[in-house]
UniProtKB/TrEMBL annotation, chain A:
Residues 1-21 form the signal peptide. This is Porin. Keywords: Signal. The keyword Signal applies. Pfam families: Porin_O_P. It comes from the Bacteria. The keyword Membrane does not apply. It comes from Labilibaculum filiforme. InterPro entries: Porin_dom_sf, Porin_O/P.
TrEMBL record, chain B:
Transmembrane segments: none annotated. This is GP-PDE domain-containing protein. One of its GO terms (molecular function) is phosphoric diester hydrolase activity. InterPro entries: GP_PDE_dom (IPR030395), PLC-like_Pdiesterase_TIM-brl (IPR017946). GO terms for biological process: lipid metabolic process. Residues 1-22 form the signal peptide. Residues 59-399 form the GP-PDE domain. Keywords: Signal. It comes from Labilibaculum filiforme. PANTHER family: GLYCEROPHOSPHODIESTER PHOSPHODIESTERASE, CYTOPLASMIC, GLYCEROPHOSPHORYL DIESTER PHOSPHODIESTERASE.
């Protein structure tokens, strides 16, 4: 599989090259370490791109044993082709022995700053959530973005930007990872960023993103939802997704709001994001679940059953109310050897020049709990202790919460190679891991991209 | 590439590989019960609660439903046999009739242990709470046993009645139901219902076959939704009967050398699987020993196999909060094949919280030996050699805290023999002597 996709990716580039090559003579040149073939009239351009992430992580774990290791967490190979106002990109990841389609889209530049995209690409949501991992300040995104960011989806998007304004919107129909356990999801996502100050000395940016989603189905169940699928939203982050993990079942819709702000001033960076999510759930699921078995009573085998009527079931199992979670982070950076530069085309930061060092600190606060019941023995009962002890249920979500403090050093060896070193200290509270409180993580990465 | 860049590249590779090597170090023990049972945080019973715990007789032999093997369960025959066999406690399941009488019955209906099909056709699956005591007295609670357990069948079991709690207490005190010449129970016509009819009670008499044992009673309450406020009814009834040790308990005459539990502060023990019932029991019968029964299942009401140590700790901490002095875990093995909740590490945790352990239910000598730890001591029982020493190399730090303090048994005779206690004869001889 891995080999086939690799060959297919290369073939796409070569076919595109040879097709046009019959008509035009291409010139090979190097652009920031990558190979670019360009026609004489500059109208046609093809480039090969790739990346390697060589990672090491050591956990200073508490009670739960976490797997410290060294790994090749990502190998990426791809091709970009440009024909005048049209362009396309295909990009496949082979990290950790998994093959995943990453960027795979066709793009039309109506004007330089007015772009239509169709295919699999980043949904415009937040700063970190819409940025490539190679351009993030830390190794991996914050817990907030890991849990609540969106990533790539298949859809149609439009982006418009000026020096001070960046707007991007799209409609999406699920991800390439969908395992066909029912209908794909649907989403519409919009990001608006305004940068009132863009000068050589200071850049100040404010923005917001919103997404409305019908989550992907994860299995057929004729008792659940109007369309017979159970839809779930999983918000997970942190070491091995253990201590922050909210699995929200019976979801109907998923809405997320993100507010972002960034200040660049010479070698200084200040960046913050806040995200709130709201998952609505199928509040009538219990009645449907029980419709074929409305009367349970004392059974022939001598067992007991709950002497309730169908109307009692939601009360017995707990109301499937909406679930809200929230998170934010704040990070500050200092560049030694360069100044931060703003890229209005992506509403993000340009890569610092070769030879620069970057020092960063970050505070992240992620809360994946939405609890209104009494917790005991792995699940929730009603807030009323007597009802809880009697066995009635409650549909609270306990995804855990954490505060993380991180420091990082990046060294930009060249336009293609960088070294990263991170340390994070995570203060976790998760009732499923009652003995785990303090987790330390030391991470290093050698990052190559071309 | 410039030289200094190569140096930096090497430095980066060095950092990366050193973190990788560090990752290979096993810095934290694997998270599993065997590595954590000694240190997992647990609450501990208060000194007052421990004093109540100590009311309970050590190495208690608890006659599960009187007997399920030698006589029809929870009938007069089963309880009289258990008493004369030497059990320390008569174990019962409490239910309540429509007219509020507390009685001893295990199942949620009467189908298995009575002839309800012929007496009340169409009501086979009804719970006991829809019948009055007088109606229930029409049932034969003994004949089914003769069919189900033919090797132990006795003609005299035919016509055995469902037992009331009052009858169980009276049997413990050395009484029996009075019978006429035909062997029929004599109705107590001094106790009438609101209509002026017989209320279903029988007269008592001193049991001529009583051999002097005075066992306690170990009663299980069900989920409160089945019998709302039954715990309060129980408290009132025990006080009336002189069996509430916190409310002027009566003196029950005992015989030296015989079981005397009925005359101790540990004469009545409460047990339940229901947390809700535990809360009620602590409210209405504080200071009475209580046992939290444990079962394994992947739901909040039971010990979850997916996270057994957390779940067990949760139960233990809850038990401590509500002064449950005893843990009542299930044991594995034939014939019941119950879940294993009495592993040595689990017992260590129950004991660390200050609780004692009454496991359920014992049917074989192998189970008795296993849960008393004999196999860690070269097969030597602590009843044979209190100073026995560990023999062999085990994954555990084997110690006496890893084993039970008593058990619910279907074969009181076997448990008595295992503990080297004096008995009045074989199980069959005791049954014969009682006139069955």
């Amino acid at each position: 599989m891995l080999r086939k996709l690799y060959i297919a990716t290369l073939a796409l580039g070569l076919v595109a090259t040879s097709a046009i090559g019959q008509e035009k003579q291409l010139t090979a040149e190097s652009n920031k370490g990558g190979i670019v073939l360009t026609s004489a009239d500059k109208d046609y351009q093809v480039s090969l791109n790739g990346r390697i992430y060589m990672d090491g992580v050591h956990y200073f774990d508490d009670a739960t044993d976490l797997s410290s290791d060294a790994s090749i967490s990502d190998i990426r190979l791809g091709t970009s082709v440009k024909w005048g106002q049209w362009s396309a990109k295909v990009n496949v990841s082979f990290g950790n022995d998994e093959v995943k389609i990453k960027d795979a889209f066709l793009r039309y530049n109506y004007a330089k700053n007015s772009i239509f995209t169709v295919g699999n690409f980043f949904e415009p949501f937040g700063i970190e959530g819409a940025a490539s991992s190679k351009d993030l300040r830390f190794i991996g995104a914050s817990n907030m973005t890991e849990a609540m960011g969106i990533g790539r989806s298949i859809g149609l998007g439009y982006t418009y930007y000026t020096d001070k304004f960046y707007g991007s919107t799209g409609v999406f129909a699920g991800s390439v990872d969908n395992d066909n356990e029912g209908d794909q999801g649907f989403a519409t996502t919009t990001k608006l960023v305004y940068t009132p100050i863009v000068t050589d000395k200071v850049t100040f940016q404010l923005g917001g993103s919103f997404t409305y989603r019908i989550p992907e189905a994860n299995g057929f169940n004729e008792s659940l939802n109007d369309d017979d699928y159970n839809r779930e939203v999983v918000l997970a982050a942190g070491p091995e997704d253990k201590f922050l993990n909210a699995d929200i079942q019976y979801a109907r819709t998923d809405m997320r709001y993100n507010f972002q702000s960034m200040v660049l001033s010479g070698p200084f960076l200040l960046q913050a994001e806040y995200t709130k999510t709201k998952v609505t759930r199928d509040d009538d699921y219990v009645s449907r679940l029980m419709k074929d078995n409305p009367y349970w009573t004392h059974t022939a085998s001598g067992g007991y059953a709950w002497p309730t009527t169908p109307g009692d079931y939601p009360g017995w199992y707990g109301e499937l109310r909406d679930i809200e979670t929230k998170a934010y982070y704040v990070q500050a950076g200092f560049l030694l050897g360069d100044n931060y530069a703003y890229d209005s085309a992506s509403a993000y930061i340009k890569r610092p020049k070769a030879g620069s060092y970057e020092f960063l600190v970050r505070y992240d606060n992620t809360n994946l709990n939405d609890i209104d019941g009494t917790y005991f023995n792995g699940s929730y009962g009603p807030a009323d202790l007597d009802a809880a002890l009697g066995g009635a249920g409650n549909m609270s979500i306990q995804g855990g919460k954490s505060e993380s403090y991180s420091v990082a050093v990046n060294y930009y060896l060249s336009d293609n190679v960088m070294f990263r070193l991170n340390y994070s200290y995570m203060d976790v509270q998760n009732q499923a891991y009652p003995l785990d409180e303090k987790i330390g993580m030391l991470k290093a990465r050698v990052q190559v991209n071309f | 590439m410039k030289n200094f860049n190569v140096k930096n590249l090497l430095a980066g590779a060095l950092i990366l590989s050193s973190i990788g090597f560090a990752g290979c170090e096993d810095d934290t023990p694997d998270y599993n019960p065997y590595n954590n049972y000694k240190t997992y945080p647990l609450k501990e019973l208060s000194d007052e609660a421990k004093a109540v715990r100590d009311y309970v007789k050590a190495d208690a032999v608890i006659a599960h439903r009187g007997s399920t093997f030698w006589a029809p369960e929870e009938t007069e025959a089963a309880f009289r046999w258990a008493r004369n066999m030497g059990a320390d406690y008569l174990e019962i399941d409490l239910q309540r009739t429509q007219d509020g009488v507390l009685l001893a019955l295990h199942d949620g209906n009467l189908r298995r242990t009575s002839n309800i099909e012929s007496q009340f056709p169409g009501k086979e699956d009804y719970p006991v709470s829809v019948f009055t005591l007088a109606q229930l007295r029409q049932l034969d609670a003994g004949s089914w046993f003769n069919i189900d357990v033919p090797e132990n069948a006795r003609q005299s079991f035919v016509g055995q009645k469902i037992s009331t709690l009052e009858e169980v207490l009276k049997i413990s005190e050395g009484m029996r139901i009075k019978r006429d010449i035909a062997g029929e129970p004599v109705k107590d016509m001094t106790r009438l219902d609101s209509e002026g009819d017989w209320a279903g009670y029988y007269e008592f008499e001193v049991d001529p076959q009583d051999n002097g044992n005075r066992p306690g009673v170990y009663a299980e309450t069900k989920e409160p939704y089945l019998f709302p406020s039954m715990e309060a009814d129980l408290a009132v009834f025990l006080s009336e009967m002189g069996w509430n040790v916190t409310d002027s308990p009566k003196v029950i005459a005992t015989t030296p050398g015989k079981v005397d539990v009925a005359n101790t502060m540990g004469r009545f023990i409460l047990q339940t699987f229901s947390r809700q019932s535990i809360v009620s029991l602590e409210k209405v019968l504080p200071g009475v020993p209580k046992c939290m029964l444990l079962w394994e299942d992947e739901s909040a009401a039971y010990v979850r196999p997916s996270n057994s140590i957390e779940s067990l700790a949760e139960f233990i901490n809850f038990s401590v909060d509500y002064n449950c002095h005893i843990a009542g875990p299930s044991i594995a093995g034939s014939p019941n094949g119950y879940p294993e909740l009495t592993e040595p590490w689990m017992c260590e945790m129950y004991h660390r919280a200050g609780m004692i352990i009454h496991a359920y239910s014992f049917d074989t000598e192998d189970q008795l030996r296993k849960y008393n730890g004999d196999y860690f001591y070269a097969g030597v029982s602590r009843f044979d050699d209190p100073a026995r020493t560990v023999s062999g190399d085990f994954e555990y730090d084997v110690n006496p805290n890893m084993f039970i303090d008593g058990g619910f048994t279907n074969l009181t005779d076997l448990s008595m023999k295992y503990q080297n206690r004096e008995v009045a004869g074989t199980a069959q001889e005791v049954m014969d002597n009682l006139g069955y």
